[in-house]
Design brief:
This protein is an alpha+beta fold. It folds into two domains: 2-85, Arc Repressor Mutant, subunit A; 92-143, Dna Ligase, domain 1. The chain has six helices and five strands; from the N terminus they run ααααββββαβα. It has helices at residues 2-15, 22-33, 40-47, 56-68, 111-121, 137-143; strands spanning 73-75, 83-85, 92-96, 102-105, 131-134. The chain has a three-stranded mixed beta sheet, with no helix packed on it. The chain has a two-stranded antiparallel sheet with strand order 1-2. A hairpin with a 5-residue loop joins β3 (92-96) and β4. The longest helix has 14 residues, at 2-15. The chain is globular. The N and C termini lie far apart (38 Å).
Amino acid sequence: MAINRLAEAVETLKGIGVRMTPQRHAILNYLLSSMSHPTADEIYKALEGSFPNMSVATVYNNLRVFKEAGLVRELTYGDASSRFDANMGEHYHVICSRCGKITDFDYPSLLNVENEASRSTGYKVESHRMEFYGICPSCQQREQ
Protein backbone atom coordinates (compact mmCIF):
# COMPACT_ATOMS: atom_id res chain seq x y z
CA MET A 1 0.00 0.00 0.00
CA ALA A 2 2.71 2.51 1.00
CA ILE A 3 4.68 1.64 -2.15
CA ASN A 4 1.69 2.51 -4.35
CA ARG A 5 1.14 5.75 -2.45
CA LEU A 6 4.83 6.60 -2.86
CA ALA A 7 4.73 5.92 -6.59
CA GLU A 8 1.56 8.03 -6.95
CA ALA A 9 3.11 10.86 -4.95
CA VAL A 10 6.27 10.78 -7.06
CA GLU A 11 4.17 10.94 -10.23
CA THR A 12 2.18 13.88 -8.82
CA LEU A 13 5.40 15.76 -8.10
CA LYS A 14 6.91 14.95 -11.50
CA GLY A 15 3.65 16.09 -13.11
CA ILE A 16 4.07 19.57 -11.63
CA GLY A 17 7.73 19.76 -12.56
CA VAL A 18 9.32 18.84 -9.21
CA ARG A 19 12.59 16.97 -9.65
CA MET A 20 12.92 13.92 -7.40
CA THR A 21 16.13 14.12 -5.40
CA PRO A 22 17.19 11.28 -3.08
CA GLN A 23 16.48 13.53 -0.06
CA ARG A 24 13.01 14.45 -1.36
CA HIS A 25 12.26 10.79 -2.01
CA ALA A 26 13.41 9.80 1.51
CA ILE A 27 11.36 12.55 3.20
CA LEU A 28 8.28 11.58 1.22
CA ASN A 29 8.76 7.87 1.97
CA TYR A 30 9.22 8.63 5.68
CA LEU A 31 6.02 10.67 5.77
CA LEU A 32 3.99 8.06 3.91
CA SER A 33 5.18 5.24 6.18
CA SER A 34 4.90 7.21 9.44
CA MET A 35 1.79 7.05 11.57
CA SER A 36 3.22 9.47 14.13
CA HIS A 37 2.49 12.84 12.44
CA PRO A 38 6.14 13.91 12.68
CA THR A 39 7.56 17.41 13.00
CA ALA A 40 10.16 18.62 10.50
CA ASP A 41 12.77 18.18 13.23
CA GLU A 42 11.75 14.55 13.81
CA ILE A 43 11.96 13.85 10.08
CA TYR A 44 15.40 15.47 9.95
CA LYS A 45 16.66 13.42 12.93
CA ALA A 46 15.30 10.19 11.44
CA LEU A 47 17.06 10.77 8.11
CA GLU A 48 20.26 12.60 9.05
CA GLY A 49 22.23 9.34 9.34
CA SER A 50 21.45 8.49 5.70
CA PHE A 51 21.83 12.09 4.47
CA PRO A 52 24.55 13.80 6.53
CA ASN A 53 24.60 16.85 4.22
CA MET A 54 20.85 17.43 4.51
CA SER A 55 19.75 20.39 6.65
CA VAL A 56 16.57 21.07 8.60
CA ALA A 57 15.88 23.81 6.02
CA THR A 58 15.89 21.14 3.29
CA VAL A 59 13.23 19.22 5.20
CA TYR A 60 11.10 22.36 5.67
CA ASN A 61 11.45 23.33 2.01
CA ASN A 62 10.41 19.87 0.86
CA LEU A 63 7.46 19.79 3.26
CA ARG A 64 6.31 23.10 1.76
CA VAL A 65 6.57 21.59 -1.76
CA PHE A 66 4.61 18.51 -0.65
CA LYS A 67 1.97 20.67 1.02
CA GLU A 68 1.56 22.85 -2.09
CA ALA A 69 1.23 19.68 -4.20
CA GLY A 70 -1.56 18.42 -1.92
CA LEU A 71 0.43 15.44 -0.67
CA VAL A 72 0.61 16.36 3.02
CA ARG A 73 -1.29 18.54 5.41
CA GLU A 74 0.25 20.67 8.11
CA LEU A 75 -1.25 20.18 11.55
CA THR A 76 -1.03 23.04 14.00
CA TYR A 77 -2.51 22.43 17.43
CA GLY A 78 -1.23 25.32 19.50
CA ASP A 79 2.20 23.95 20.37
CA ALA A 80 5.33 25.40 18.83
CA SER A 81 5.87 22.74 16.18
CA SER A 82 3.79 21.96 13.13
CA ARG A 83 3.26 18.28 12.48
CA PHE A 84 2.80 16.74 9.05
CA ASP A 85 0.27 14.15 7.97
CA ALA A 86 0.45 12.32 4.64
CA ASN A 87 -3.01 10.79 5.13
CA MET A 88 -5.04 13.14 2.95
CA GLY A 89 -8.25 11.16 3.37
CA GLU A 90 -11.01 12.56 5.55
CA HIS A 91 -10.18 11.73 9.17
CA TYR A 92 -9.85 13.32 12.58
CA HIS A 93 -7.28 13.34 15.36
CA VAL A 94 -7.05 12.49 19.04
CA ILE A 95 -4.24 14.41 20.74
CA CYS A 96 -2.58 13.55 24.04
CA SER A 97 -2.64 16.57 26.31
CA ARG A 98 0.42 15.21 28.17
CA CYS A 99 2.91 14.14 25.47
CA GLY A 100 1.39 15.62 22.31
CA LYS A 101 1.03 12.28 20.50
CA ILE A 102 -1.51 12.47 17.66
CA THR A 103 -3.54 9.44 16.63
CA ASP A 104 -5.82 9.20 13.58
CA PHE A 105 -9.48 8.63 14.25
CA ASP A 106 -11.85 7.58 11.46
CA TYR A 107 -15.40 8.78 11.62
CA PRO A 108 -17.99 9.43 8.93
CA SER A 109 -17.48 12.78 7.25
CA LEU A 110 -19.24 15.72 8.83
CA LEU A 111 -20.46 17.00 5.47
CA ASN A 112 -23.96 17.56 6.89
CA VAL A 113 -22.48 19.78 9.60
CA GLU A 114 -20.55 21.77 6.96
CA ASN A 115 -23.73 22.19 4.91
CA GLU A 116 -25.68 23.37 7.98
CA ALA A 117 -22.92 25.81 8.92
CA SER A 118 -23.04 27.19 5.39
CA ARG A 119 -26.84 27.38 5.32
CA SER A 120 -27.19 29.08 8.70
CA THR A 121 -24.32 31.59 8.32
CA GLY A 122 -24.14 32.29 4.60
CA TYR A 123 -20.47 31.30 4.55
CA LYS A 124 -19.12 29.15 1.74
CA VAL A 125 -17.63 26.48 4.01
CA GLU A 126 -14.50 24.97 2.45
CA SER A 127 -13.35 22.57 5.15
CA HIS A 128 -13.55 21.73 8.81
CA ARG A 129 -11.27 20.42 11.50
CA MET A 130 -12.21 18.41 14.54
CA GLU A 131 -9.89 17.10 17.19
CA PHE A 132 -10.26 15.40 20.53
CA TYR A 133 -7.95 15.84 23.50
CA GLY A 134 -7.21 13.33 26.22
CA ILE A 135 -4.46 11.23 27.75
CA CYS A 136 -2.94 8.50 25.56
CA PRO A 137 -2.58 4.93 26.84
CA SER A 138 1.21 5.33 27.34
CA CYS A 139 0.78 8.42 29.52
CA GLN A 140 -2.04 6.72 31.44
CA GLN A 141 0.33 3.82 32.17
CA ARG A 142 3.09 6.20 33.35
CA GLU A 143 0.64 7.94 35.69
CA GLN A 144 -0.37 4.70 37.45
